[in-house]
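Hi team,

Filling in the usual template for the complex we talked about on Friday. All components are listed, including any nucleic acid strands or ligand strings, so the model treats them as one assembly.

SUBMITTER: L.P.
PURPOSE: interface mapping
COMPONENTS: two
RESIDUES: 614
SEQUENCES:
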Amino acid sequence: MNHVDIDIAALVDDRLDQGVFRVDKRVYFDPALFELEIKRLFENNWVFLCHESQIAKPGDYFTTHAGRHPVAVVRQPDATIRAFLNVCSHRGSVLLPFRQGKLDGGINCRFHGWAFGMDGKCQGITLERAGGYPGGAADKQHFDLDSFAAVENYRGFIFGSLNKPPIDLRSYLGPASTFIDLFADQAPEGMEVLRGSSTYVCRHNWKMQVENVPDGYHVPTVHRVFGTTMTHREQRPGYEGMLRTETGRIVGGVKTGCYDLDHGHMLLWADRASPEAAPIYPASERIERDLPPAMARWMLKRGRNLNVFPNLVLNDLASTHMRTHRPLAPDLTEVTVWCLAPIGEPDDARYARLRKFEDFFLVTGMATSDDLVSLNIVHEGAMATQRQWIDFQRGIGTVRNGPDEEAMELGIQPLTSNTSWTHETPYHGLYRYWLRALTENRGGQK
Amino acid sequence: MRVADVSIALEQEVRRLLAWEAYCLDRKLWDDWLALFSDDAEYWAPAWATEEEVTSDPGRELSLIYLRGKGGIEDRIFRIRARDSLASVPLDRTAHVLTEPVITKVEAHQVEAGCSWITHVYSQRGIATLGGYTDYLFHRDPDGLKISRKRVVLIDDRLDLPVDVYHL
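RESULT (copied from the run log):
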C-alpha cells in the first residue's frame, strides 16, 4: 500500500536526547510522498470543511475539497449537516458550480440532468426507461452520491473524513479544542464568517503554510516593515482606540509561548501589549462576567494562532481569521482566508476588525503578502539538497513536557510547552504525527 | 446608467489624467501618483463575495484594500519605499493598458468616470496578467481634477502573486 520508494522514517531525524531534530528537505517536494499525504492526511483523516455560518439554513451548501475530491457540504431540512462528493455518480462531472449557495430542492447534474436529493440520494435518471439498463431499470441506490464516512460540528467548525477516520473528532482535536472554544465563545450568538474572501496560490509546499502558523520567529524580520509602516501611520490622527495597531508583538517585549497539541496541531500565543486596541475589547465586561476567568484572560489578553492539522488555521492576533489550504502539487498550495467575527458586533469594532484584517492578512495587504513571498523563497531554497536537513533546534534547551503555567490555567494538556514563540519545538510534534500518519498500519483504511 | 453628454475638453482632461496615473504607476513616480488624490480620498478594492458579485459594504464586509484618506494611500507607498518588504524587493515591473474612459456623470464640481484595464506583471516570482475595471470620482479644485474616490474591481479572484496599489 505504501508505494513510496524512499524510507519515510529516515526523513525525520528525531534524536532529541542528543539535541537533534531535523527533517529531510524531500518532505517538501517528493511527488510520491505528496500523493501519500493526500491519501493519508486529507482523504482518510479529519479535515476542516467549513464554518456553520456558511451553511446556516436548510438547503444551504458550501463546496470545498478533501484532497483531490470535490466536496459539497449541505445543511439538511432537519438542520443536520451532510457532506458528499460534489461529483456526479454517472460520469463524474462536478455538480455544484458555486462556492456557496442554496439548493432548490436538490441537485441536478448539469451534464445529463441526473437528479439528487439534498441528502445526496439519487432520485432521478434522465430517460431511465429508455435507458436500456440491465433488467429494465437502473439501480438508483448504486448511484447515490458518495457520502463522507464522518461529519462532525465542533463549536461551529465542520470537520469531515471522507473515509473512516483513525479516531473520533474530539480525541483528534484533543487540547486544540479549547483554543477553538476561545473563538466560538467570543459572542453569545457565536461567530460568523463575513461576506467576501480571498484566495491565492502559493508556490510552496502546503506544510510550509502549516509551519508558518506557530512561527513567531519571522515576525520581527518579515513584519518589521509592517510595524514601521504602522508607527508612521499612527503619527497622524484617526488611528486611536481600536484602530490602533498592536505593534507590541512585532517589536518584542511581550510574553510569548508555543504548544505542541498532538496530532500535528500547534499553537502560538503572545500577550497583548495593548488589549484595549483589540476589536473584542468593548465586549470585555460581558466576557469577564460570563466566562471562566482563565478563558476570559486568554481571550482578551493573549493573541493566538492555532493550526488544526492538516488544513485549518484560526488566528486571533490583530484581527480574527479563518484560513484553509489545499495542496495542489508538492510546490503549489491554494489558500483561502475569511474574516471570522462575533455575531452582532458593534459597527466600530467590526470596522476596526475589517481594516486590521485587510491591512495585515491579505496578499493585497501589507504583511501576508510578505509571508507569501518568504515561504515561496523557502520552497525555492528547499531544492538545494546539498544541505539536506532543516534543523528544528530552537527551544530544545527550554522545552518541557506537558503544560506550562498558562496552559495549566486553561486546564489543558499540551504534549510540550515552550517559553517563546520563536521556538521550533511545536514542529517536533508536527513531524512526529506526520510520520506516524504516513507510516502506521491503519486497519480498514484506504 | 448611461454615458454622460460631456464636452470634448472634459473627455480629454479625464483621459489625460488616467493615462498619467498609469504612467506614474508603471514608472514608479510615487509622489506624482499621490498628488493625484484629494486629502479625503477613498481607495477601495472590494473582495469577491460570490462568483458573480463583489462586496458592497466596507463597514461590514471584507475588502481586498480599503484605505480612507490620502494618508492611508501614502502608507502603502511608505512601505514600498522602506525597501524592507519581501513582496516589494525587488519591485514588480508593471505595464498598465487602459480602455478609453467613459464619463458617467457630471455635476457642478464632480465628475464620475470608469475604465477597464489590464496590467501585465513581471516579477522574479512569475508573470501574471491582472485585469479589472475602476470607477473614479473626481473633484474639481483650483489645480484641476483630483481623485476623491477610486474603486477598483480586480476580476482575478485567485491571485498568483501579491498585489499592491501599483498593480491596480
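MY TAKE: The domain at 8-47+61-167 of chain B is CATH 3.10.450.50 (Nuclear Transport Factor 2; Chain: A,). The first strand of chain B starts at residue 37 and ends at 46.

Thanks, L.
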